[in-house]
Amino acid sequence: MTVSIKEENGFKYIESGGDGEVLLLLHGLFGALSNFEALYNRFAKEYNVVIPMLPIYEMPILEVSVTGLVDFVTRFVEHKGFRRVHLVGNSLGGHIALLYALAHPERIASITLTGSSGLFESAFGSAFPKRGDYEYIKKKTADTFYDPAVATKELVDEVFSIVNDRSKGLRVVMTAKSAVRHNLSDKIHKIDAPTLLVWGKQDAVTPPFVAEKFHELMPNSRLHFLDKCGHAPMMERPEEFNEILATFLKEVAVSSDALATKA
After folding, report:
1. Would you say domain 6-262 falls under CATH 3.40.1280.10?
2. pTM here?
3. What is the dihedral of CA 227, 31, 69, 204, to 10 degrees?
4. Which of 23, 181, 184, 235 pairs as cysteine with 47 (C-beta 3.0–4.6 A)?
């Protein structure tokens, strides 16, 4: 992405400064700001699109966990003074969004999950492969998508560099294990915020049955499947994803206006 990254009070983030409500995007374990490029470009003027860089690789080792990242998001939202936010989370970012919503329901305007962890995920397993195994990382990165071509050399190189950095690799493994421990199957029924689930039919990391279980457990959710699509629909099917999200956000706005009128 060509937009500038802001740095203040220990936070790094992108903010569009659009006229509307806050659309807060949370990336996954190997995610980057570029994962949301198409979404950012589509909504940047209509909403204030904000993408914080989650400190997955920089957190103090004793704080490395999913809850540590939720604490980070909590501090960030308070720092920015956001009253309510529309959360959008992919993979681990969805897991963080759910935990944040459980802790701060008053801050949630809506939730959008795509390929979210929190119930079940199958990625690298409990440990990383032998360092230096580029072909393994290339295959695992490609397996994230329906179309392997989406896993560009630049993306594979980025994942490979993380794996081969001992400090970053350790934090990734610790975060992944923490995510498995924080299974939300007995909690997410408590979330009554409007929730959109957008899933790839060929998602091998959080397969379609995971989306169906989220839909079953979350009382105010709606589910859309995208065909020929893997674990990151906003990257692999950006136009369809954005149209579904735009329709959902407008419906949420209409419902909110109706409730405000009745009050």
Report:
1. no
2. 0.92
3. 40
4. 23
